[in-house]
Amino acid sequence: MELTWHGHSTWRVSVDGTDLLIDPFFDNPKTALSPADVDTPEYVLLTHGHADHIAHVGEFPDATVVATPELAAYVEDEYGVADTIGMNYGGTVELGDAFVTMHRADHTNGFETDYAVSGDVPGAYLVSTNRPTQSPDEENESFYHAGDTGLMTEMRDVIGTFLEPDAAALPIGDHFTMGPWQAAIATDWLGVDHVLPMHYDTFPPIEQDPADFEREVKATGSDAEVHLLDGDETFDLSAGLE
């Protein structure tokens, strides 16, 4: 599994022959790419309906969009998306060579329209090479994209304990999501081997020095390796687990 960060919360996840793009938003200072520069993924996953997470969903017309049923219907109407898959918390869907499980995120949500602002529930995704089960699976590789979230005990009691991600992308920007110290606690609770900060330096309220997050992770006693990626840089999770 390869994980490429395009800044903010935008990740390309490659699982064998399947490419997934999470929260496409290329108007951020960490990426040198525009949507036109990006090879069309088979699937686009949306964590929630805020503009800095769905802005460029319409730029990939050949991709299938995965989101909650409400958000899927919204992007069909507002962005002209043709193919969608609606799912919800606890559900797992098979997407090509990947399995995707949706979990909750603690955040607000809204869809901006000309007539109202409404919304559904914000989410997070676990992307894995095999379907999650209670049986140990040493061959499985898994990546947890936490979405926009605050610290929540489900990270310790459910996601870390039962979904057992190998790597996590966590927001560290503070103000709208966790900041470095709460994201460090989340790292420890999740028990991941690798952690990658996201959702920072895009706007003035979320400017951060990611080295602060690295120090906070060490202070928890976590053994997780912190990867401070540059924009458009790829981390090879498969190699990291060898």
From TrEMBL:
Instruction: Read off the SUPFAM superfamilies from this record.
Output: Metallo-hydrolase/oxidoreductase
Q: Which residues form the Metallo-beta-lactamase domain?
A: 7-175
Domain of life here? Archaea
InterPro entries (alphabetical):
Metallo-B-lactamas, RibonucZ/Hydroxyglut_hydro, UPF0173, UPF0173_UPF0282_UlaG_hydrolase
SMART domains referenced in this protein's UniProt entry, alphabetically: Lactamase_B
Q: Which GO terms describe its molecular function?
A: hydrolase activity
Ordered alphabetically, the record's keywords are: Hydrolase
Q: Which family does it belong to?
A: Belongs to the UPF0173 family.
Name the UniProt record assigns to this protein: UPF0173 metal-dependent hydrolase HLASA_1533
- Record lineage: Archaea, Methanobacteriati, Methanobacteriota, Stenosarchaea group, Halobacteria
